[in-house]
Amino acid sequence: MTLRQEAYAMIDSLPDDDSVQFFIDMIRRFNIVAGKPEEISGNQNLLSEKREAFLHMEELKKKYQFPKDYDYEQIRREAMEEKYGCVN
User: Fold this and answer.
1) HSE-up of 62 (CA within 13 Å, CB side)?
2) In the chain, helix, strand, coil percent, each to 5?
3) Is the Cβ–Cβ distance between 14 and 23 less than 8 Å?
C-alpha cells in the first residue's frame, strides 16, 4: 500500500463529514497542501513572511558555507572572554 493509498484509506475510515472536514483543516494548518501556505487568518501572512525569510537564510547558508575547520565553540569562548573577561 502506498502512502497515498494509506491516506485515502484513513479518510475513508472517518465516521462522518465533520471528521473529514477537521482532517482537511489540519492539513491546511500544517501547510501540506501543494507545499504552499493557505490563507487561513491574518496571522498566516506573518507566518508566510517568516517562512520566506527562513528559506532565504537557508539559501544564503548554502551559498556562503563556513569553512570545514570553523570552530564555533572557540569563537564563542573568545567573544565571551572579550566581553566579560575572565569569569573564573
Assistant:
1) 5
2) 70, 0, 30
3) yes
Q: What's the pLDDT tens digit per position in 1-30?
A: 898 888 888 888 888 887 888 888 777 777
Let me know how long the chain is.
Answer: 88
Cβ(5)–Cβ(17) under 8 Å? no
* pTM for this entry: 0.33
Contact 81, 73 (CB under 8 A): no
Helix (H) or strand (E) holding 28: helix 17-29
CB-based contacts of 24, cutoff 8 Å, min separation 6 = none
HSE (CB half, 13 Å, CA atoms) of 73?
0
C-alpha cell at 15: 465516521
Tens of pLDDT, residues 36-81? 544 455 566 677 888 888 889 888 888 887 777 888 899 899 999 9
